[in-house]
Structures are given as C-alpha cells and as structure tokens.
Design goal:
There is one protein chain. The protein is of the alpha/beta class. Helix content is 31%, strand content 16%. The protein contains eight helices and twelve strands. The chain has a five-stranded parallel beta sheet, sandwiched between helices. A four-stranded antiparallel beta sheet has the order 8-9-7-10. Helix 1 crosses helix 2. The chain is globular. Bound molecules: ribulose-5-phosphate (5RP). Ribulose-5-phosphate binds next to helix 5.
Amino acid sequence: MATSTTVEEQARLVESSKRLAAFQAVKDYLLPEYTRIGIGSGSTVVYVVEAIAGLGSAVTSKMAFYPTGSQSEELIEAAGLNLQSISKLPAGQQLDVAFDGADEVDDDLNLIKGGGACLWQEKIVAASAKQFVCVADFRKLSPRLGTAWKKGIPIEVLPMAAPRVLDELLRMGAQKPRIRPGLPGKAGAIVTDNGMWIIDAPFAPLLLPKDIETGSALVTGMWTVDALADALIKIPGVAEIGLFYGKNGLQVASGAQKPVAAYF
Ligand code: 5RP
C-alpha cells in the first residue's frame, strides 16, 4: 500500500513538473508577435499546447503551428490551432520558435530524443527554428547522456539496412543495440511516420568537452557526444539519430539542433 502511494505521488510530481515547465517555457518564449511555431512530440508537449491554447484565440489565431509527426498534428488540431506543414515553409524562412520534449538533457544541453520514434521530423523542425526550447520533467536532467535514459540512443534506419547498422553499432561499442519492437499488439518492428525502423543503441555515458579537459576521456570505450554523433550519422542506412548536439541557437543563425534553453 505504502509503495503504491509512493508510485502515485511520484507520477503526480512528474506530471506537475512537466506542466510547470511547459507553462513557464511558453510564458518566456512565445511572444505575441510570433507567427510560426514548432510543436514537438511526446507527453510533455501536451502541456505546451495546453498553455498555448490558454492564451486565447486573440493571440493564437495569427499563429501557424508546425508539427513533428502524427501525434503533434492531432494535438494541434484538437486544440483548435492552425495546423501547417514544415514542407510548406518556404526556403529562406524560419519558425520563430519550436518547443519539444526530450528523453535526456546533459549539462551542455545536448539531448537524447526519439523515445516516441519521432526524432527525424523533430530534428527538422528544431533546426528550422530561430529558437528551439526544450521542455522536460526533472528526471530528464543528467550530467552525461546515457546516465538517466538507459534504453539507448534512438537511431532511425532504413529497414533493409538494419542488420548492417546493428553490426556497425556493436563494432563501435554499443551494448546490446536492438530493433525497437512494435507497439503492444503489433507484431514486428515499430514503423516511424517516415516508414523507417528505430534501433536503440546503449553506449557508456557520453563525455563533454569539460571531461576531456579534466582527463576523463582517457577512459577506454567512452565517446564524446560530438564524436559519437558524427560517427553514427555516417553509417550507411542511418536516416537520422536521436542525439541533438553541436552548437545551440545562440551560437548559430540557423540549423541549430541544441536548445537555447531547457525547462524542468
Ligand atoms: C519523441 C521524443 C519526445 O520528445 C521524448 O520522448 C520525450 O517524451 P515525453 O515528453 O513523453 O517524456 O523525442 O520522439
């Protein structure tokens, strides 16, 4: 009995952390003059959409919302917001801001994403925005990626390439990489909105530049975030990886994968 209460309390705490983070992020980063907004995927983004819808149609009717997959498409439509497609955003144009969740966030704001299998479109939308804002609950923050999210880095792959990609991941030191199974009741592999499969590849915690300065990178078998990401994306058959890394939107004019801010 005591245990189940604790589990329920923890669940309530997590939900309230997601909600508070979402409302604060929207308050700080959604300016009324903005017209193009990216909306990510997952359970935390539900609160982002709730916060945006709560601003009222006087504010939101001038805005268009760009989803990262079928789930966020449904969320936007259900909230009565104006749904647009990133494929219709003309070349040379950017979203004003994009909000999305994460599976893990490290001290440098590198992210693991893709727990919901939407990482490819999520990266396109994040990189199309002038500002990308991450919203997550307190469980997601950790000093190094791979510490809190133990399931592995989600990697979107062409189905025919999956066995070769698994071989390469093992060679690179991944511990038991595996093809993600379908949702309960669905046989076979999970199929993404883009017709691809997901491989989850666990690696030892990923080092940051500060670790190299202090010498921890000498530990054998440990990758830095940037080195691993650069190597993963080059494997033939890999469409996109769930590491959002490199420079954030404060440092690059466009194409940033890392958020300018993370809310917990
Ligand atoms: C989906 C994602 C999600 O943003 C991530 O899994 C976080 O989800 P949640 O907010 O439900 O914890 O990357 O591909």
